[in-house]
Write a structure and sequence with these properties.
Blueprint (H helix, E strand, L loop, with lengths): L2 H25 L4 E3 L2 E9 L2 E16 L2 E8 L15 E11 L4 E5 L17 E6 L5 E14 L2 E8 L7 E5 L27 H31 L1
Antiparallel strand pairs: 1-10, 2-3, 2-9, 3-4, 4-7, 5-6, 5-8, 8-9, 8-10
Length: 231
Amino acid sequence: MSKVPNRRRTTAALTAAVAVAGAAVLAGAPAAQAAVVDVNYACETKIGPKSAVSPVDIKAVKGGSGYTITMSFEKGVSDSPVELPKGVMTPRAELVLGGDASGTVKVKGTPNTAAIPPDTPIKIGTLTGTFTPKKNGKVTFTAGTLTVHALGMDAAVCTPKNNPKPSLELQVTGVSGGSDTPPPADDGGGSDEQLPKTGPLDSAVALGTLGGTVLLTGAAGVLWLTRRTAR
């Protein structure tokens, strides 16, 4: 007799597990899809051309009406023949927008926190910027030009040469007035015509006009009768 309740408890537990798993799948639908993409940079430097491949990771975090965008490099893309003292190197980059947006997003890093030895790959670290969408839709972010500013000059300008794929695909929602529905077409009639007002003031004016007309009519009638009688 005790086997039946145990079987029921087992069935109920399995049903609950399936329900939780289904809910997790629905809740886990991503608003952004990120992928680490290998970017082959061709760099023009003060000591000649350089090239390097670095995995690039781009992420977005929602904040207010926009997104904080971060771009991370797993490897350095250039090096310096001399030591770079602390605080003299600052990287910046452009991210190319695609999908339902166009243009670029500028991201910038912080100055190096430690000296960089000579002939050592320059650690780029994390670059940060802001993206404020103008409409809802799917937006892609792809690594663009990277510039390493050091010792008061742009020491290296690096351009992707392998046509990299987007590192981030972001589904933008909640933009006020940001739908793709076009505005109503203008019929060319200019401003709307004003309909006659029918308020109390207008009624008083109308009655005053009517009263004046009746008064004038009565006066004309009296004048006509007076003249007729005089004859």
